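ESCALATION

Customer reports they have been waiting on this structure for their group meeting. Please prioritize. Original submission:
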Amino acid sequence: MPAPPLILTLAIDEISHNYFTTLRTQYFPKYCNYLEAHLTLFHHLPADVDSINETVQQVCKRDNMLLEITGINNTGNGVAFTIASASLQQIHTELQQSFAPYLINRDKGDFLPHITIQNKVTAFKAKQTTDILLQDFKPFTAQGIGIDSWLYLGGPWEKKKEYRFE
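Update from on-call: job pushed to the front of the queue and completed.
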């Protein structure tokens, strides 16, 4: 039996994480909400390749990064907050180049950072949620504080390791 795939996410400051997780708890269908809010960097890497761990450790030798929460995006069957950050794009590009031999198609393309707070709903429900959230939305900032690795267990995730920026 092959090892479960590894997922990498950007860790964000506690206040922002709690804000997004509260929204996710409110709007994500309960039957399939196994996770707290997260910003996925890579969806499927081999968990048994030591160089992945070493590369992430090297990339984390930098300061926390500023994340601009720029908008709310209706994805058709859900809602996500859009994120802009030159530092985040740079880290992702570095990791994408290092991980090239292991990447699935989904992780090879352009990186569009976002935090999903609703998914797997009807277009009508997604529009309702988008309209509600847009009423009060003003762009704001958050801090990227590191990278977390997770094992994908067919629904739930199991945290493997936390890497923090220096």
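Sent to customer with the following note: The helical segments are 14-27, 50-59, 86-98, 105-108, 123-136.
Escalation resolved.
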